[in-house]
Amino acid sequence: MRLKIGFIGVGGIASLHIQSLLRIDGTEIVSVYDVNKENAVKAAESTGAQVMDSAEQVLDPARIDAVYICTPQFARGNLEELAALRGIHLFVEKPLGLDMEEVRRKEQVILESGIIHSVGYCLRYLDTVQQAKAYLTGRQAHLIQAYRFGGSHPAEWWHRLDMSGGHLVDAVTHQIDMIRYVAGEFNEVEAKLGRVSFDSLQSKGSIYDAGSIAFSMEQGTVGSITESCLSPFHTASDLKLFGHDFFVYLSQNGAVLAIIDGGQNETITSAMDPYFEQCKAFVEAVTHHTQAPILSSYADGARTLAVTLAANRSSLERTAIHF
After folding, report:
1. DSSP letters of 152-205?
2. Mind listing the domains of the chain with CATH numbers?
3. b/e for 40-77, b at 16 or more Cβ within 10 A?
4. Taking the model in full, what pTM does it have?
5. 195/201 Cα distance (integer angstroms)
6. pLDDT tens across 234-288, in order?
7. For the purposes of burial, counting CB atoms within 10 Å of the CB of 233, is it exposed (0-12), middle (13-18) or buried (19 or more)?
8. What angle separates helix 100-113 from helix 298-317, to the nearest 10 degrees?
9. Whether 240 contacts 247, CB under 8 Å
10. What is d(CA 28, CA 21) in angstroms, rounded to the nearest whole number?
11. Which end of the chain is more exposed for a tag (fewer CB within 10 A), N or C?
């Protein structure tokens, strides 16, 4: 029996999922929809899928078993809820939205429906991240340092804070999720976000060009996250965890792991494709109807989103936000 899959949104990130699914036996992409008809047609040509006239038309339980929702965070509407209520298993890209109350409502509907659900925090599936998580079990860092520097998304919507949430919500979310995954839950965040360069370079945008976030965690660890989406000459996506008797360093978005302690000094580079591993886990979970292979549930995605939205709020209100 083939697993029949639909896609809502077939832009850049969706293409990575499509390429991965085409490598997995027993899957068939049968329906696609995108507001950009040209994108939808290209995806259909590469997969043999049918181009549908609307997102809701994709969500036909007689036609598909599972759906990938890869629309931007401002353009989800009630798609997740519709999928859940129709018994369609759900993969949804991060970030989950821009309104925590709305996301929590969707979370409840998804959990009550019993469908398999996964959120696109693909870095969790890297063997290096898994090894870091295993090593840190039973160990506590006293300091965590993370950063992400790079360029901006070209889309106009991405440069609007009310549509993307900014670089922190849209991209740095991966580093925040990795911190949560390997080291535990956040307790408090306090952020300073600025627009020094963007103010002079673009008049229509409203996102921040840089941010500095201080935080504490439930077990007492403190740390910082530094980020910029206007860094053309230096890029980095790293996470460092300092313990009194160890140092763990995840660099290149988790693809390279270094562990140093009294008995080892080892660097490991992953050869895995996290998008493929993530898709493989989702297919396995749906096929066997179990959440077990999924490393990021909707509830997990919501908790990561809460941290990023709290940081945005902290900067606006000039105060620390507790969880």
Report:
1. --SSTGGG-HHHH-HHHHHTTHHHHHHHHHHH--EEEEEEEEE-HHHHHH-SS-
2. 3-121 (3.40.50.720), 123-274+305-322 (3.30.360.10)
3. bebbbeebebbbbeebeebbeeeebbbbbbbbbbbebe
4. 0.96
5. 10
6. 999 999 999 999 999 999 999 999 999 999 999 999 999 999 999 999 999 999 9
7. exposed
8. 170
9. yes
10. 8
11. N
Spatial separation of the C-alpha atoms in residues 234 and 280, rounded to whole Å: 33
User: Residue 1: what pLDDT?
Assistant: 75
Two structure tokens written together for 123? 């870095």
Residue 231 half-sphere exposure, CB side, CA atoms within 13 Å?
17
pLDDT digits (tens, 9 = 90+) for 180-215: 999 999 999 999 999 999 999 987 899 999 999 999
DSSP output for 219-249: TS-EEEEEEES--TT--EEEEEEEETTEEEE
